[in-house]
Amino acid sequence: MATKTTATTTNALPDGLSSNLGSKLAYLTRVLKTPTIGRVWEDLAAQARDANWSHEEYLTAVLERQVADRESAGTMMRVRTAHFPHVKTLEDFNLDHLPSLRKDVLAHLATAMFVPKADNVVLLGPPGIGKTHLAIGLGIKATQAGHSVLFDTATNWIARLGRAHHAGALRAHHAGALELELKKIRRYRLIIIDEVGYIPFDTDAANLFFQLVASRYEQASVMVTSNLPFGRWGEVFGDEVVAEAMIDRLVHHAEVLTLAGDSYRTRARRELLAKDRDK
Questions:
Q1: How many whole angstroms separate alpha carbon 233 and alpha carbon 211?
Q2: Ordered DSSP codes for 218-265
Q3: CA-based angle 36:40:41, to the nearest 5?
Q4: DSSP 145
Q5: pLDDT digit of tens for each residue in the chain (279 aa)?
Q6: Quick one: three-class SS letters along 95-139?
Q7: Dihedral, CA of residue 211, residue 215, residue 220 and residue 225, to nearest 10
Q8: CATH of the domain spanning 83-266
Q9: Nearest CA to 58 among 68, 67, 45?
Q10: Which of 140, 135, 137, 133 is nearest to 120 (CA)?
Q11: Other residues' Cβ atoms within 10 Å of the Cβ of residue 18
Q12: CA distance 276 to 270
């Protein structure tokens, strides 16, 4: 009879003890800033008693829930601060429409292992084949791996640096503003520069773009999308020497993917016309 009484008391805590322990744990989880533990400890404790978990197993389960929620919240924050124009994942990308893309290379890049090594990624190919989608998808993978990411188009990157450069040129107390801006950008482990080649740059813009790339050389990662092969980048930057120097820094530690395929928009229009003919 005593044995039965002991078994019953080990499966549930007395009301008074449970209440006092709950209040204490609520206070401790607030101090430690671990709200998930404060929310799940009681349910997991009941589960642990029912399943006869060891103390170590219960502690592991509680901590795993806290870490999972914190990582999820951290990823959401990094995605927001990356300023992606849209949230597009690699899982949403239709690889069948881009047979030129090697799946093993994409899978390797999706691990985001290139970011801590400060390696670069360059996506080259005609408009409309999904380069921006791939860049955003890889950027999201990097945020999920815990890396800070910042996305923008090439023209917007130049505009951002141009504002800093002009501030330094116009006001003595803003001297070094461009260097400070480049340093601020370098805090991001990966920056994505979209749409290089759509609009040609003047000499000043080309110089700013070169400084952006050079400032991250072997320090932090750059991902670039372009509709032009490297051989035509001189047309974009108006100077073959500057273009060659920039390409040299980009590709020294880089995965370069040269993609080919039909434009999504062209294919969609063709499929729509085919449906109209069939009616």
A1: 16
A2: TTSEEEEEESS-GGGHHHHHT-HHHHHHHHHHHHTTEEEEE-----HH
A3: 110
A4: T
A5: 344 434 343 455 555 556 688 888 888 989 988 988 888 898 888 899 999 999 999 999 889 888 888 888 889 999 999 999 999 999 999 998 898 999 999 999 999 999 999 999 999 999 999 999 999 999 999 999 999 999 999 999 999 999 999 886 655 455 589 999 999 999 999 999 999 999 999 999 999 999 999 999 999 999 999 999 999 999 999 999 999 999 999 999 999 999 998 887 666 556 566 565 666
A6: HHHCCCCCHHHHHHHHCCCCCCCCCEEEEECCCCCCHHHHHHHHH
A7: 10
A8: 3.40.50.300
A9: 45
A10: 135
A11: 13
A12: 10
CA distances from 199 to 74, 102, 158, 226, 233 (A): 35, 29, 11, 11, 11
List the one residue out of 158, 157, 219, 224 whose CA is nearest residue 189.
219
The Cα angle at residue 151 between residues 182 and 204, in degrees rounded to 5: 45
Residue with tokens 């009616």: 279
Q: Judge whether 145 and 71 are in contact, CB under 8 Å.
A: no
User: What is the domain partition of the chain in residue ranges?
Assistant: 2-78, 83-266
User: What count of other Cβ atoms lies within 10 Å of the Cβ of residue 39?
Assistant: 14
Determine the straight-line distance between the first and last CA of the chain, rounded to whole angstroms: 82
pTM as predicted: 0.77
The answer to whether 253 touches 119, Cβ cutoff 8 Å, is yes
- Distance CA(227)–CA(133), nearest Å, equals 14
User: Residue 136 class from Cβ within 10 Å (0-12 exposed, 13-18 middle, 19+ buried)?
Assistant: buried
Task: Output the DSSP codes for 151-206.
Answer: EEEHHHHHHHHHHHHHHHHH-GGGTTHHHHHHHHHHTSSEEEEEEETSS---HHHH
Count of residues for the chain?
Answer: 279
